From TrEMBL:
Domain MIP18 family-like: 11-75
Highest rank taxon of the organism: Bacteria
InterPro entries according to UniProt: Fe-S_Maturation_MIP18 (IPR052339), FSCA_dom_sf (IPR034904), MIP18-like (IPR002744)
Protein name stated in the entry: MIP18 family-like domain-containing protein
Species: Microbacterium aurum
Length: 109
């Protein structure tokens, strides 16, 4: 069972996850809207990241897990990613900052 993170810890984790870049787009997973939820697993004393990908067939989960481990190294001792496929990711989840980044790359969004 997961518990809610404190607002301070939530902000700290979210800020750290902005260092995790989608390998194909070069935009962070937070601003792409790939993070669905963050929670705390009291039983295993670990952060739980509910995360998706832009497509279910993306072969880059290992790359994202490695980047996540590096980004969270000073923030939490343990984490796990719960890959979520429902609801499917869509461009409506991209933040305003993410949209600006995509436009800078030439995407019409």
């Amino acid at each position: 069972m997961t518990a809610t993170l404190s607002p301070e810890k939530y902000d700290e984790v979210t800020e750290a996850l902005k260092d995790v870049m989608d390998p194909e787009l070069g935009i962070n997973v937070v601003d792409l809207g790939l993070i669905y939820d963050l929670g705390w697993d009291d039983e295993n004393d670990a952060l739980v990241i509910h995360m998706t990908l832009t497509s279910a067939g993306c072969p880059l989960t290992d790359v994202l897990e490695e980047q996540t481990a590096q980004a969270l190294d000073e923030v939490v001792e343990r984490f796990r990613i719960n890959w979520v496929w429902m609801p499917p990711w869509g461009p409506e989840r991209i933040t305003d900052d993410g949209r600006d980044m995509m436009r800078a790359l030439g995407f019409a969004i």
